[in-house]
Design brief:
Elements: H1 2-6, H2 8-26, E1 40-45, E2 50-51, E3 58-60, E4 65-67, E5 74-80, E6 88-99, E7 106-114, E8 119-127, E9 139-143, E10 150-151, E11 156-163, E12 169-180
Antiparallel strand pairs: 1-12, 2-5, 3-4, 5-11, 6-9, 6-10, 6-12, 7-8, 7-11
């Protein structure tokens, strides 16, 4: 009689497990979070940049990147890997550099690529201009003019960098402020 009295417990446990499994299997994950997270930042250091062509003459001391070529603008690239699985909203872009050259400049761009289409576009740009700074005065240039500022899972992001032909132009890195969501 006691066995019959307790026989309903395994059946109840089985029914609860089945309802949980059916609920989990039927759940549809959202690709679009409804609320933005708090602001985060990602730093891409000088060591992360690599030359675009094989014939470039440059120096990368891991904390500082500069061109050794005369009369040529050098181009570099660094991938940006956000530690977020879905959508990312980019709020601000900063360049840490030393521009001790009155005629050359450093230009940093964030590019958003669409591998499925084989295309990309510049979404933010910073230029040091031809400002002259003391060797002991690295500066921060920044912009919030980012359009479009949302990266979705189908896009890749990279930083594209050009340095004019002078070893008085040093790039220390870039920082991207972002939030998870859109």
């Amino acid at each position: 009689m006691n066995r019959l009295h307790n026989a309903w417990r395994p059946m109840l446990l089985g029914a609860v497990l089945m309802s949980v499994l059916v609920g989990v299997a039927g759940a549809v994950p959202t690709q679009k979070p409804s609320a933005l997270s708090s602001q985060r930042q990602l730093v891409v250091g000088a060591a992360d940049f690599y030359p675009i062509s094989d014939d470039t003459n440059y120096t990368n001391y891991n904390h500082c990147l500069y061109s050794d070529a005369d009369g040529v603008t050098q181009y570099f690239m660094a991938p940006v890997d956000f530690p977020a699985p879905l959508w990312v909203t980019i709020d601000r872009f900063e360049l840490f550099a030393l521009d001790a050259n009155g005629t050359g400049q450093i230009v940093a761009d964030i590019h958003l690529s669409k591998p499925s289409e084989g295309s990309d576009q510049s979404i933010a740009s910073i230029s040091t201009g031809v400002a002259f700074a003391d060797w002991t005065d690295p500066r921060t240039w920044q912009t919030t003019a980012i359009s479009p500022n949302v990266k979705n899972p189908a896009n890749d992001v990279y930083v594209y960098l050009s340095i004019d032909d002078n070893d008085a132009l040093h790039v220390h890195g870039v920082r991207i402020f972002y939030r998870v969501g859109k």
